[in-house]
Every structure is written in C-alpha cells, then in structure tokens.
Amino acid sequence: MALTTYITSYCSILDNTLTLNGETVWTSDTPLFADFSKKAYQHLELQYPKFFKMDALSKLAFLASELLLTTLPGNTYEGTTALLFSNRSSSLDTDMKYQQSIADKKEYYPSPAVFVYTLPNIGMGEISIRNGLKSENSFFIFEAFNSEFMTNYANLLIETGKATAVLCGWVELYQEEYRAFMYLVSKEGIKIHNQENLENLYNR
After folding, report:
1. Are 54 and 37 in contact (CB under 8 A)?
2. What are the mean pLDDT values of the chain's consecutive 10-residue runs (204 residues total)?
3. How many CB atoms neighbour CB 163 within 10 A?
4. What is the pLDDT of residue 11?
5. In angstroms, rounded to a whole number, what is the distance separating the alpha carbons of residues 8 and 98?
6. With CB atoms counted within 10 Å of each terminal CB, which end of the chain scores lower, N or C?
C-alpha cells in the first residue's frame, strides 16, 4: 500500500501579492519585479544581504521559500528535505541579460556575476544554503505546471526514504511576467498530496 503524503503548507507569489495557505499576506501596486521583490524582502523583514546579488528568478524562488518555511517549525523541513522545482522559461531571463553583455564587441564585458545565474537551479542552491539543506534537488522544464509529475516524483522520494519532506515549486519568471507556487510535502499536513488537490491549490 502506497504511503499517504500531505501538503504541509503552500504559498504563491502572483500579481504583486504574497499568499500563504490561501490567505493574502501582503500586496503591492509596484509594477516592476525588481521593485516588488525589494519591497517584499522588506515586508518579510529578511536579513540576508546576498539576496541583492541574486538574479530575478532566484529572488522569486527565495522569497517564496522564506514566506513558506519561516512559518513552519524548524524540524518540519530540516534534515533530509529534498527540493523539486520546475518552470517553463528555465533561466532565459538571465541568459538574455548575459548575452547582451557580450553582444557588443565595443562594450564587450561578460559579467561573471550574471553568468553564475545562467542555470535555473542556482536558486535552489541559494535556498539550500540559507536553510542548511544538504539534500537531493532537481529542476525540470515543462510547458506548464505538471501536477502529475510533481505529485509522483515527490511521493516517490518520500516513499523510498530519499527524503523526509520535499519542498516543491513552480517558479516561472521571464521579463516582467512571474509566478511562484511553492509547497512542502511530508507525512503530515493540511491536505492529502495528490494531483487533484494540487491542481486546485495552483488554480486558486
């Protein structure tokens, strides 16, 4: 018999709004992500200067993880917590910025600070460092949020003992279009972790 897993907590960042477990935490009328992310950082009263060196995709993932994990008891996610993320555009937003830095032969200056973030999974590394996670992590690219894949993969990690919890997320950002949907899966929680419940939460 398959082990029943649960969604412990979930959050979203969409339309300049932070939402936790279905409740609006904070909203802003700031149109640009750079400004919104800075204000969200201030609202959450974070103390992590490295945040300002991150690319936009990593900032989005980091903010969602902070919104989610800081509301949970430490032992809920510490230890063998795996990370499972996905999106549609990979790191294309940062890739384009890096390409611009090398396209002009007269102003040729490939920035190492930008190049670091030309992989979508770097944000997972930032989250792992912040929370002391030394666990499995995978980042997949899909055309749209793939609830079936995410459900099966997260459940498999827990069922096989690869992880005691899985931090899952859809973290999509391209230019000024962005959305984060993040949730923690474990053996205890508020909703059974299955495809139907996941779809309902994502589409709220």
Report:
1. no
2. 89 97 96 96 96 96 96 83 97 82 68 79 95 93 98 96 96 96 95 97 94
3. 22
4. 98
5. 38
6. N
User: Looking up tokens 């279009």, which residue turns up?
Assistant: 177
CB count in 10 Å sphere of residue 29? 6
Q: What is the CB neighbour count within 10 angstroms for residue 170? A: 22
Element (H, E) at 147: helix 147-159
Query: Is 200:26 a contact under the CB 8 Å cutoff?
Result: no
Q: What is the pLDDT of residue 114?
A: 77
- Domains present along the chain, CATH in parentheses: 6-202 (3.40.47.10)
pLDDT reported for residue 131? 92
CB pairs under 8 A, 24+ apart, for 138-141? 138/82, 138/83, 138/84, 138/85, 139/85, 139/86, 139/87, 140/84, 140/85, 140/86, 141/86, 141/87, 141/88, 141/90
Q: How far apart are CA 147 and CA 15, in angstroms?
A: 21
Contact by Cβ (8 Å): 193, 6: yes
Q: Hey, which residues does 6 pair with through a beta bridge?
A: 186, 192
